[in-house]
Amino acid sequence: MLEDTMLKTVLRVSAVLLFIFALFPSSAGAQISPTNSATISGSVSDSTGKPVINAQVSLSGPKSTSTQTDAQGFFVFIGVPFGTYSISATATGLVTATKSVSVQGDVNVAIQYEPASQNGLKVIANVSSNANAQFNVTPASITQVNPIANAFEGKTSWRTILEQIPGVAHAGLGNGGGSYANTVDSPAVPVQVAIDGALPYETATLLDDMPLIGAGPTTVLAGTGTNLALYPLNGFGSADVVRGPGAGAPSIVDSIGGSFLLHTPGVVDRTHYDFSVSTDPYGGIVTNALIAVRWKKLSAVVTYGVNDSPGPLNHAGVPSGTYFEPSTLDGHAFSCIGSCAYSPKFDPNYTGYSIEGFSQGLLQCCFNQTAAWNQHSGSVTLTYALSPSISTSVFYAGETSLMPSLCTGLYAVNFMPPTGYTGSIAPGVHYLSTVGGNGGTNPESQSSSLVEEKITAALGRGILRLAALQNRTWSSSALNTFGSSTVQLFGQGAICSNTDPTCTGGTYVQTVFNGGTYTATYSPTAFDCYVALTSNNRDLLLSYATPLGDNLHAGVSFVKSFYNSEDFFVCNYGAPYNFSFSQQTASLNNTQTTDELRFFVGGNPSEKTSLDLSMYIAGADYHVQNPNDPTGATFTDERYTYTAPRLGFVWRPTAAIAIRAAAGGGFAEAPLGDLVGSNGVPQPNSLTSPNFYTVSLTNLNLRPETSFAFDLGTDIRLHRGVVLSFDVYRSNLYGQLYTSSTLTGTYTGSAGTLPLYTTQFGNLSKSRYEGVLLDLSHDIPHGIYWSLSGGLTRGYVVSVPPGFYNQPGQICNVATNTNCTNQTVVPNINFNGTFAASIPYAQGLGRLGYRWNPEKYVDLVGTYYGNNNTYFRSAFVEFDGDVGYPITKNASLLVAFRNITGIYDNPLQIYSPSDLSGAPTISGLPYVLHGEMYGPRTVILTLGVRL
User: Fold this and answer.
1) Domain extent listing, the chain
2) Element (H, E) at 674
3) Alpha-carbon distance 511 to 808, whole Å?
4) Tens digit of pLDDT for each residue in 244-296?
5) Most CB atoms closer than 10 Å: which of 102, 192, 330, 605?
6) Can you give the pTM of this predicted structure?
7) CA 469 to CA 453: how far, in whole Å?
C-alpha cells in the first residue's frame, strides 16, 4: 500500500543521508537545531524587584548573540532556532547569572537576584512558558501552552487548556451524541481545536509540521479534524496556538483559522525525575511520572501516566428504557399499553426525538450503571547526536482508554404514572434513565499509536530535516443485552390472565406497577451490536533552510500526508428475529493524499523591521468510490490543487512596541467522509417503525475550500511587567462545505413505499470569520500578577450559489414554502444549526494572583463563555482557584479548586430535547439539545516531586 511505500522510502533515504554525513561530517556547524525559530524575551531585576538597566545579556547555543536590557530591564532575542541555549546576564556590581534553556517555542526568562547571604549573592532564574508574559515580535499571534506541565498539575483533558484561550474553541464535547460525552471531563470526551472561528476540519493539528489525523467514535466523521483526546496530554513538551495567515506557518492545508503545533519534549540538559499524584474529581487517582536522562550524546525523556476513576455513577442504579419491551413477566405474556419499545412512550404533544413524558409508559428500574474509566498514556523521546553535525530522534506517544458504554446516553425522563399508581418514584419529576441494555456488559475503548523518526543535520550553513510519521487510532464500542433479567417496574402495562407466554386462550389485564420485582424475558432473546473505527495516516517531511548573509534566510520544505479509515458495524438479533446485519465500509480503499511544497525567504531589511514571504503549492488527491456504481466496487481518482502566497511583517518603532501584520491564502480539503457518501441502497430511518428512507450521495463536484485572510496586531509594553496585545482578523472563505438534505420523491424498499431524503455535501459561495482579540497582562517573578484577555468572534454566510434554495428540477416559492430546501442557511446572520459550528461570540479570562516564588503562589481565575458557546448555554462565568506551596526543596503541593460556584456542575451530561425552545433544524428535522454540563465542583490535590 501507499503508506508502506512511503515508509520504505523514508528508511532508504535516511540510510543514504546517514552514510553521506558520516563521510563528510565537517560540512556542518558545531550544533544542530531545527529550522523552527522562537522568541526569547525576559527581564533582569535586583533583589528588591527594581529593573537592572543596561545589563549585558548573552545567548549561547545554535545561535549566539547578545543584547542589553532597556530602561525597564527587559531584553528580547528574535529568530532563535529551536535548541538548547545558555543565557547569562551580568551588570556592574552583580555576579553573572546563567541559566540553561531548552527552546522548543517562545520562552520568557525572568532573572532576579536575591539578597546576599552567608554564601554570597544568590540568583533566581525563572524560566516560564506563560504566554501572557511574552512580548510577541513575530508576524503571527502565538499562544503557547505546556501539556506536560498541565498533566503534572492534575489536569486530565485538553479541554481544560484550550477553553481558556479566547478565540479558541474546543469543538466536540460530544454535542449530544455518544456515550463518552455523558461523563463530564472524562479524558475520552472528544476535543477538536477550532481557531479564530474556523471549524475543526479547517484547523490543522501538526507534529513537526506534519498533520495528525485521528478520529474517535464520538467525532462527527473520520477525517473531519483531529480528536486530541486520543493523544496523551503528558506526552508533549509544548504546543503553540498559531493564529491567522502567518508567513512562517508550516502549512496552509486545513489552516483557515490557524494551526495547533505540537512539540516533542526537548533535549535534556540534566538528568531529573518528576512524579505527581492527584485526586480525581470523582474519587479516583491520577498519576504521572517523567524520567529525563542525559548520558553523553544520548538524551531521553520517558513519561507515563494512569488516570483511574470510578466515574460519577459508580455502579448507581438508574431506570432503563430498553430497546425491547418485555415479552413475559414471571412467565405471563406482557404487552405495553401504547408503546414501550426503545422509549416507553413519547409525549404526544412533542414531535421531536424525546424521551420525555412517560405518560402511561413503563419505567424499568433499576440497573447498575457505571461511568468508570481507566486510561494509560505516555511517550518516549530518544535523541542521539551521531556527530557534531547530525542528530537523530525517535518519538513515540500512545494512549489507551477503556470505559463502559452508557447505552447510547443518559436522558432526563419525566415520569407521569397512571391512575392508581402508589410507587416510590414521584410523578412529574425528572430522573436519569439509560436507553438500551438489559443488564449487559457494554465496553467502549479507544487508543492511539504515534511514532515519529527524524534526522536533523547541518549541511553547509543550513539545516536539513527528514522525518516520517506513522499515526494510527482505534475505537470500538459494543452493546450487549440479555434475554432475561430481574427488574422493578413502575407505570402501566398489561399481563396475560394465564401463564401461556403467547397468551393463547387468555386475555390481557391492565396492570399498574408500583415497584414490584419481576423476572422479565425479552424478544429478541439476545441482541448485540459492535462498532469499530480504525484511522490511519502516514506523513513524510523534507526541509532545508539556510542563512543568506547576515540578515536573510531562505528555504524549501515538502510534506506529504496519506490518510484512510475503516468503519465496521455488526448487529445480531436472537429469536424470534434470528437476524444478523453487518457492514464493513470500503473506506480502506477510499484514500486521501495531500502534498504541500513551500518556498520561503525572510530577513531584516532594517534593525526595526522584519519581513517574511512564503509561497505554498498544495494538492489533494482522492481515490474514492465511483458515485455512478451503487455497488461501490469501482473507484475514481480526483485531484485538486491550490497555490497561495503568505506575507508577514513586523515593525518595532521602539523597544516597547511591535506592530505585526500577516496576510495570505488558505486551503481546506473536503474531509474524506464527506466526499465518499454511502453509495448504497436507501435505508429506512428505523428498524421497527420506519416512516422514510435516507441515502447519502457522493459528490465528486465537491471542491476544497479556499480562503484569503489577514491579521493586524500590536504588542506594547506599557510598564514593567505590563504588556498589551491586540489583534483584529478576517478570513473570507470561498466554497465552504454545507450539508443538504432534500426530499426527492419516494422509494420502494424493504419497508414499502416511503418518502426518500437524499443527503449530500456541497459548497457555498462565500463565508466569513472575523473578530478581535485583546490581552493585557502583568507578570513578575515576585508579587502580584494579573491578566485580562478577551475575544469576539463572528462567523456567517455572505452569499450562496444560484438556485441554492430550489429543489432539484423545481423553483422554490418562499411565500408558500414549497419546492424549497436549505432554508436554514441564511446569508448575513451568524451560523446556525446547519453548521456543526462552535463559535463563541465572546470569550474572556481574568486572572489575579500573588507569587512568592515559582512554586509558592495563589490565584483566582474567572472564565467567561459568551452566547453560542460549546456548552449550549446562555452566557456564564466559571471560577477556578489554585494554591501552590513548596513542602520541601524537591516536593510541592498544588490545591486546585474547580468550578468554585458550582455552575452547571452536574457530573453527567443530561440530554433532554424538549428543554430548549426555538432550536434550529438540521436537514429539515428538529434537533434540540439540552445544555452541556461544565464539570463537577471539586477540589483536586496534587503532590509533585522532582529529584
Assistant:
1) 31-128, 141-309+373-406+442-480+526-946, 316-369+416-430+484-522
2) helix 672-676
3) 52
4) 898 778 899 999 989 999 989 878 878 999 999 999 988 899 999 999 999 98
5) 192
6) 0.82
7) 7
